[in-house]
Design goal:
The chain is mostly helical. It has one domain. Helix content is 76%, strand content 0%. It contains seven helices and no strands. The longest helix is centred in the last third of the chain and has 27 residues. It is globular. InterPro entries: Methylamine_util_MauE.
Length: 177
């Protein structure tokens, strides 16, 4: 079961690390998207954008260092993102998502689904950690081959979740124009 935690850690580190890097690479675009969302006053959009990048970077760094702290941090951030998306959907805001840089994909239910999947993965990683702490077991039972396999599986999952918008678009019937 500890391998689930390792896979979760690898996946969430890669996803949050990639999100922070792509936002930094197109920071002006990300700042504009935060302003467009209207969740914070315009004058604070830059601060909010920088704060999001800093928190995502912190999650990406914390997850491999401490599974419990990092996974709980990811879970809290994903919950905030889901609440923000729900508020925007209820308001009828049709802004683009700059979750992984400038994509132009409109923010919507697919982002709730992706963030829900990420939150479920964080919870899945926390359960074995909590059970191991309760049973007094440690990470010493992990085998190197199992850890490598878990990290590889986590990175594949991260790649799929980073490309989630494109995958949804690929498998969604298009409307004729």
């Amino acid at each position: 079961m500890e391998y689930l935690t390792v896979a979760s850690q690898a996946l969430l580190t890669a996803v949050f690390g990639w999100a922070a890097v792509t936002k930094l690479r197109a920071f002006a675009t990300f700042r504009r998207s935060v302003r467009t969302l209207g969740l914070v006053p315009d004058r604070y959009a830059g601060v909010a954008a920088a704060g999001i990048v800093a928190i995502e970077s912190g999650c990406a760094l914390a997850v491999p260092l401490s599974a419990v702290v990092g996974l709980i941090g990811c879970l809290c951030l994903l919950t905030i993102f889901c609440v923000g998306i729900l508020v925007l959907l209820m308001r009828g805001v049709t802004a683009s998502c700059a979750c992984f840089g400038a994509t132009g994909a409109p923010l919507g239910r697919k982002h709730l689904t992706r963030n829900g999947l990420l939150a479920a993965i964080a919870l899945t990683g926390l359960v074995p950690t909590a059970n191991a702490a309760g049973a007094g077991a440690g990470a010493g039972d992990l085998q190197p081959a199992g850890v490598l396999t878990a990290v590889f599986a986590g990175l594949i999952g991260a790649a799929l979740l980073v490309a989630f918008d494109d995958l949804v678009e690929l498998f969604t019937p298009s409307t004729a124009r």
